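G.,

No rush on this.
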Amino acid sequence: MPPKTVLSVGQCRPDSAAIAHFLSTHFRANVLTADLPEAALKSLQNNVVDLVLINRQLDADGSSGLEILTTIRSGSTTADVPVMLVSNHAEWQQKAVEMGAVYGFGKAELNRPETRQKIAAVLEAP
């Protein structure tokens, strides 16, 4: 099976590195990054992406990750791409799920077994 590709959007540099390391170590995933919404959407247009991880609030400009989720869900070629919100706040996770995301995880939960299971459910699905 070829490696999966994950697009990580809006993380600060240390969190981006930690997420990329986690995904490459546990899932042999290729990780693409985007700092801003426009770059994320361009990356989705130009690559086959198996999972999108969106920071609740983008580090580069403070914009809302939920806005990117809305745009992804409304796109004809991106509507079915699995998306997870990266946030420690349960209420934001719930909002994202109501908008079509898969329940995500917080940065503080990155190395927990439950986080690996959540991501595996997407990346290791047939």
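When you get to it, here's the other one too:
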Amino acid sequence: MSSNLAQQYVVHLDSIIKMYDDAYQEGNIHIPERVAYGIIARARGAVEQITGRRSSYTRQMLSILDEEWHPSYKAELITGIVAALKGDLQDGYLASLSELVHGEVFGDFLQMAEYLLNEGFKDAAAVIAGSTLEAHLRQLCLKHGVDIEHTLPDGSKRPKKASQLNQDLAKVAYSQFDQKQVTAWLDLRNSAAHGKYADYTDKQVEQFTEWLRHFIERNPA
């Protein structure tokens, strides 16, 4: 998560907090319901966007929304969550939030691959899992300061192949054992992408998605 993006999030969260504070400054004992629902809607959208649907922030917010409390009370509690998230962003807890978001996005793709595999579409599942692996390798490169592009003699740039990213990451991010496993799964992905569907089985695609899920968890980006 870049510092500019984090600052934009902080400004947005601050506007939600201000919306809550302004409602009380108008002399209200309770926040009007229309304002409370507005705060809740904006806060939910912001928290889920910034931290993901499985974060502790989102889970706590959803548990509040499930209660049969007055909207103004819910808005008060949720504003507290917004303030906590704003503080964490300002204090520099950015890497963990970024890793959480990446992990959730890739997890969704893996769920898609697993669904397709269960429905009998092993080749589509293999392509999605392979694309997810390559995307995660690129995110790991960005995290560890590894260049994801080659600079050509004419000054132009060309994206590195996944195999090269894997070699580079084995020097700074994970073990040579992981490197060998990544190489094997990239070979399966290449077979799927080039229509060589007889080169691998349903069981191997299943093993690929299981391994990839654990690999992403062990090496968050």
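The CA atoms of residues 118 and 206 lie 9 Å apart. The chain has two domains: 3-90, 95-218.

Enjoy the weekend,
O.
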